Amino acid sequence: MLELRNLSKSYGGKPVLGHLSHRFEAGEFVAIMGDSGVGKSTLLNLIAGLDHPDANGEAPILVDGIAMSSLDDDAATRLRRKRMGFIFQAFHVLPHLNLLQNVALPLLLNGLPQQRAAEMLAAVGLGGRENDYPQQLSGGEMQRVAIARALVHRPALVLADEPTGNLDPDTAHQVLLLLQQEIRANGACTIMVTHSASAAAMADRTLILTRDGLQTAPSVKPLAQ
Q1: What are the domain boundaries of the chain?
Q2: What is the mean pLDDT of residues 119-129?
Q3: What phi, psi does 177 have (nearest 5°)?
Q4: In angstroms, rounded to a whole number, what is the distance separating the alpha carbons of residues 180 and 151?
């Protein structure tokens, strides 16, 4: 589903990521951990095509066999819109739209029926608040809106940057169970960056990002059944 081939990224001549190669399969939930500043968020932005890797003479990122580097901006936008879902640390919830409109946005952009938006709001514990606006929410509630929006169009690839960082432990567990449910139902590949060992334990496998690359964590817990 997703393949990294000798992926590198530098800023101002300073290496951030170097020569990463790894394959992620459809239907698996992978956690990525590592020290602050090691490049975890940068890696997600590169996979999404929101940033560009260093040129190395080959296609360093392939999504469903499509080289991201071969796409112009419009084609990359269409691929992200249709095939990807994003959960960002900064939420990116639109303040001028109510909660239902925020969650329904990927459905609208993809020409899909919009009734699932209300279902996803209910799934993250915000049922009945469809007409509220982001300024009426706590940080944790905005994160739940962002999660519902990321999953609503059943993307094939979900990229999650600290998705439980603003949530209390009970809500975090419920959200991770929802991620698992969506993976099973839709065969989505999910890559979750996290500092939380308990969140990582919910994934199929955990990778540690270091300056030397991606390494398999010592213990891996299977996806809950």
Answers
A1: 27-39+77-216
A2: 93
A3: -65, -40
A4: 11
Average of per-residue pLDDT across 195-206 = 93
Q: Could you give the percent of the chain with pLDDT greater than 70?
A: 96
Q: Which residue has the tokens 């398999």?
A: 216
Specify the DSSP element, H or E, that contains 209. strand 205-210
Pairing of β 205-210 and β 61-63 = unpaired
Encode the chain in three state secondary structure: CEEEEEEEEEECCEEEEEEEEEEECCCCEEEEECCCCCCHHHHHHHHHCCCCCCCCCCCCEEECCEEHHHCCHHHHHHHHHHHEEEECCCCCCCCCCCHHHHHHHHHHHCCCCCCHHHHHHHHCCCCCCCCCCHHHCCHHHHHHHHHHHHHCCCCCEEEEECCCCCCCHHHHHHHHHHHHHHHHHHCCEEEEECCCHHHHCCCCEEEEEECCEEEECCCCCCCCC
Task: Name the superfamily (CATH) of residues 27-39+77-216.
Answer: P-loop containing nucleotide triphosphate hydrolases (3.40.50.300)
Q: Which amino acid is at 52?
A: H
> Distance (Å, rounded) from C-alpha 102 to C-alpha 116?
12
Q: Is 49 helix (H, G, I), strand (E, B) or coil?
A: coil
CB 118 within 8 A of CB 100: yes
